[in-house]
Amino acid sequence: MQQPLAYRMRPTSIEEVVGQQHLVGEGKIINRMVKAKMLSSMILYGPPGTGKTSIASAIAGSTKYAFRKLNAATDSKKDLQIVAEEAKMSGTVILLLDEIHRLDKVKQDFLLPLLESGQVILIGATTENPYISINPAIRSRTQIFEVHPISPDDLKEAVHRALTDKERGLGSTPIELSSEALNFLSQATNGDLRSALNGLELAVRSTTPNDEGVVEIPLSVIEECVQRKALTQDKDGDAHYDVISAFQKSIRGSDVNAALHYMGRLIEGGDLQSISRRLMVIAYEDVGMANLAACSRTVEAVTAANKLGFPEARIPLADAVIELCLSPKSNSGMAAIDAALSDIRSGLSGDIPNHLKDAHYSGAKKLGHGTTYKYPHAYPNDWVKQQYLPDRLVGTKYYEPKQTSKFERAYGERYQALNDAQNK
């Protein structure tokens, strides 16, 4: 039985890795580790199909170390023992441990000494946030790197490589992939290279060659093979971003029906990731201080949607869209932090006042750090007049409250009262 195209096209060296250039690009951390042969154990986390296994395989290929792959959930301690024995006999072994967030204590305790000695270089792979889901004992012995969905341009490059590679790819078959199909394939798979290559291979294997022996792959065939409709795409791929833009602007403009329409296009394209990210951005960028409870409920809706998956995910997403559309709007939070960042980036910062500096170490008192700090909870109303900004920024105001909702009006009144008391 022939191995799947996505498996065959896995990189054999670090230079072949598609995407993730913030980690494997020239001069970046994993690239440097490989070149110096100074590997440390690591955890790679991110969505499926974004190259976690490929990076591990490429590291092994570039360093010529033995490479083994296990699953933390389904493989036993005995399987780990076999890897450990191999490491003792032949030297360093790179172990890709998939679903590392499901590693139990017995396996963990067996692994820890191997990581300490460097006999095993662990590369853990997970779709879960390791800072929440992985035991601190493992985290403290690994570096944690986030991998991102692969960009459409990188996906196109990977598809082109698969179409032209005669040894591992489809290069021995004459194939004509239309530009519309290529654009759609690079967008509709949402940065998942495995899905893109699986869809491409199915399209090629299931299409009868024409009279000249060429396999022609139009948009309709790719749509069928990846089970997505090209409602968010156009010839140049720009319409995908146009839909996302229209989605946000419709919510910002409080048009419920338009917002539901554009989200419907994204749902039909299976693009849960774009919807989730955009809704959380919209909540805090466009509603923000006007209705922080709606922001929290949007995060809850997105979390529920990602746990449910489509088709049920459409329900909490629709609830969130309707609430965000009908909520009062304010961008004052975003404007405030952008104003603060502008000062910092232009060199307007200054020394932190001594009474605010850390005083929890030996010698801090001699430096005058924290000695005159006033603890607000020791005063009436849990507040006391005290300078917090650096000297050169005293009196600077970044936050400008809006009057669009009763919530922000209340915050604004409190903000003004505190400013007045501070300036007396």
Automatic annotation (TrEMBL):
Domain AAA+ ATPase: 38-151
Keyword ATP-binding belongs to the record: yes
Cited Pfam families: AAA, AAA_assoc_2, MgsA_C
GO biological process, one term: DNA synthesis involved in DNA repair
Record keyword Nucleotide-binding present: yes
Stored InterPro entries: AAA+_ATPase, AAA_assoc_2, AAA_ATPase_RarA/MGS1/WRNIP1, ATPase_AAA_core, DNA_pol3_clamp-load_cplx_C, MgsA_C, P-loop_NTPase
Protein keywords: ATP-binding, Nucleotide-binding
Molecular-function annotations in GO: ATP binding; ATP hydrolysis activity; DNA binding; enzyme activator activity; single-stranded DNA helicase activity
Family: Belongs to the AAA ATPase family. RarA/MGS1/WRNIP1 subfamily.
Protein name: Replication-associated recombination protein A
